[in-house]
């Protein structure tokens, strides 16, 4: 493919903005259709429908159409923290997915049914997910370790009669007793779950409840089976994922087949994958929509995926060893893990031979210039790329589309703002370059998700379009520069007042993290006894002692200051590893914590209280 220059990419983005429907019509070719759509769109946003009349099946796109020429090609590699590996060929995938499809069908799963997945990152997660798609079902994806009540609520919300899980999982050297947790949830709460399929993984130290639980290894059909893929329509839901819960109670979002079409285009643009060739590693647990990339585009584009079970920070050298082991070409990972690599030190990227690696794509939070700089210095031959998405949108809001062209990277920016993205003022008036405001999105995008259980889109309209009619509101604050690069300065809810100015958290955090001794930082404004104060929470790099005074001096040298500095071991994070600044603010101002269902580890709250009240 011809690579564009920056000006050519900007021209292309402008052309799409002028004639979006033309572009989206062309984009339908990203997947194979069983019945071709006859028109690009119908109706008005936000209730607009896409690819009218088109029918297809994602599992069929992923496996069946690729099978003849790729039987022996590896579709996925699996690896765990102890270095155990397994290769799954396209033929294996076809074989396993058909067996699971048969089983689910026998259990009554049909088109339009939701099936819940609560699983570690193991090959069976891929088989079940693809099998659900094969039957035209909807995946409801859940994080491990949610509070029992939250998980029960989500089972109810998704209406799944079938839950697929595993006996246990392994993370950071410990075992997670998943089945025990499921038993607890299902005995303490009322849910629609009738059958639980348990992938035993060779263990037997867990209970099987009669008439409810089925051990996968016992009931999996033997031998070669073929289950015909169901046709689904472009606007049919395919997957439900929850937003991260960074700013409030997580929202259940469903994405449709049309989303797969648009996001496949986007992933090609941001990863620049070579169809049929590249090995791609997505570092994501099940639950985060990003995990869906494994089933949405990797097999579809005849690539080889890597799934890793566990925590990549478990051993310093794991990250580079995985890349070396499978000759990984492209990595897609969350910001926190990139910060973690920096914190672990250069061995994390140098222990293994990473010469196969071309690009690392960041997603999740603004990538600090300090982290970017460190990654560049320690991996000079690897392109560090960025992409800014939200669960609801399913498409990059901004990105460095290295798959489209050779463009300059600007540290601190998430990349070029994509189609129809604007920065507006308090009244919703679009702002020119270099002025800070609210980031909003055009509603003309097939990747746009919808709220689950919101058939008339009443809740959607209220949550996303009432603040700025005609746009979808991101809740993010930022600006774009003269070249069209977007800078996310933070969440609007987290804006800090400094000397009468509105400052995004990123502006101060970015400076803190450029200090080589600091791994992570979170800055919040809060009220205590009617005084407004700004506090910075600092996580030093592994094995480093840092003093409050040295942080204060470092900030002062760069022209900034905060009222309070707290040195902590870790920050409160969501399951998708984002910093929950609202909890820091609530702790500091002695206010109720609000919804904490997305908090990764509740113990962090007491750790923080101890530091704050010292
Ligand atoms: P909730 O909506 O439940 O409060 P959330 O917004 O964190 O949680 P997600 O949909 O997982 O839920 O995350 C989307 C948000 O993540 C964006 O609105 C943005 O703030 C942030 N984000 C994602 N990627 C990037 C990136 N590359 N650069 C800057 N910010 C990013
Ligand atoms: Mg959000």
UniProtKB/TrEMBL annotation:
Gene Ontology biological process terms in this record: acetyl-CoA biosynthetic process
Keywords recorded for this protein, A-Z: ATP-binding, Ligase, Nucleotide-binding
Family: Belongs to the ATP-dependent AMP-binding enzyme family.
Name listed for the protein in its UniProt record: AMP-dependent synthetase
Keyword Metal-binding: no
Organism: Saccharolobus caldissimus
Ranges where the AMP-dependent synthetase/ligase domain occurs: 67-442
Domain AMP-binding enzyme C-terminal: 507-578
Domain Acetyl-coenzyme A synthetase N-terminal, residue spans: 10-62
Highest taxon of the lineage: Archaea
GO molecular function terms listed in the Swiss-Prot or TrEMBL record: acetate-CoA ligase activity; ATP binding
UniProt key word Calcium: no
């Amino acid at each position: 493919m011809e690579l564009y220059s920056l000006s050519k990419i900007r021209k292309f983005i402008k052309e799409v903005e002028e004639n979006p429907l033309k572009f989206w019509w062309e984009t339908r070719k990203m997947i194979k259709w069983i019945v071709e759509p006859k028109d690009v769109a119908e109706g008005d946003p936000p209730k607009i429908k896409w690819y009218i009349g088109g029918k297809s099946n994602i599992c069929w796109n992923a496996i069946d159409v690729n099978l003849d020429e790729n039987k022996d090609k590896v579709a996925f590699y699996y690896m765990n923290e102890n270095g155990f590996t397994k290769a799954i060929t396209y033929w294996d995938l076809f074989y396993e997915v058909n067996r699971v499809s048969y089983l689910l069908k026998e259990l009554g799963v049909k088109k339009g049914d939701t099936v819940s997945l609560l699983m570690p990152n193991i090959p069976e997660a891929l088989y079940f997910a693809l099998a659900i798609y094969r039957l035209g079902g909807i995946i409801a994806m859940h994080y491990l370790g949610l509070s029992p009540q939250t998980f029960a609520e989500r089972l109810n919300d998704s209406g799944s009669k079938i839950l697929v899980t595993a006996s246990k999982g392994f993370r950071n050297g410990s075992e997670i007793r998943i089945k025990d947790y499921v038993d607890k949830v299902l005995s303490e709460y009322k849910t629609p779950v009738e059958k639980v399929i348990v992938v035993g993984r060779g263990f037997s130290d867990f209970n099987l409840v009669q008439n409810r639980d089925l051990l996968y290894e016992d009931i999996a059909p033997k031998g070669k089976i073929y289950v015909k893929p169901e046709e689904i329509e472009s606007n049919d839901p395919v997957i439900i994922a929850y937003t991260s819960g960074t700013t409030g109670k997580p929202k259940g979002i469903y994405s449709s087949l049309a989303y797969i079409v648009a996001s496949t285009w986007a992933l090609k643009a941001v990863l620049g994958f070579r169809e049929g060739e590249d090995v791609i590693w997505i570092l994501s647990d099940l639950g985060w929509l990003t995990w869906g990339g494994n089933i949405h585009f990797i097999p579809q584009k005849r690539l080889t995926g890597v799934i890793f079970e566990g925590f990549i920070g478990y051993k310093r050298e794991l990250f580079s060893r995985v890349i070396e082991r499978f000759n990984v070409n492209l990595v897609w990972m969350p910001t926190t893990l990139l910060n973690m690599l920096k914190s672990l030190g250069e061995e994390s990227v140098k222990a293994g031979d990473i010469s196969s690696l071309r690009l690392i794509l960041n997603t999740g939070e603004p990538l600090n210039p300090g982290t970017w700089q460190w990654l560049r210095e320690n991996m000079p031959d690897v392109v560090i790329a960025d992409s800014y998405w939200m669960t609801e949108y399913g498409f990059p809001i901004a990105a460095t589309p290295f798959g489209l062209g050779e463009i300059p990277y600007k540290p601190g920016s998430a990349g070029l703002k994509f189609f129809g993205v604007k920065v507006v003022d308090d009244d919703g008036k679009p702002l020119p370059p270099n002025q800070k405001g609210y980031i909003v999105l055009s509603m003309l995008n097939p990747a746009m998700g919808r709220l689950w259980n919101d058939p008339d889109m009443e809740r959607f309209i209220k949550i996303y379009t009432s603040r700025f009619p005609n746009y979808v509101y991101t809740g993010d604050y930022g600006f774009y520069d003269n070249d069209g690069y977007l800078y996310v300065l933070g969440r609007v809810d987290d804006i800090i007042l400094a000397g009468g100015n509105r400052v995004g958290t990123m502006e101060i955090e970015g400076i803190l993290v450029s200090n080589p001794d600091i791994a992570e930082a979170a800055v919040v404004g809060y009220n205590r006894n009617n005084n407004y104060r700004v506090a910075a929470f600092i996580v030093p790099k592994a094995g480093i002692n840092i003093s409050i005074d040295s942080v204060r001096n470092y900030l002062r040298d760069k022209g900034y200051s905060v009222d309070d500095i707290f040195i902590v071991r870790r920050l409160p994070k969501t399951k998708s590893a984002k910093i929950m600044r609202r909890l820091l603010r609530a702790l500091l101002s002695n206010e109720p914590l609000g919804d904490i269902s997305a908090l990764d580890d509740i113990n962090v709250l007491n750790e923080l209280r101890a530091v704050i009240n010292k």
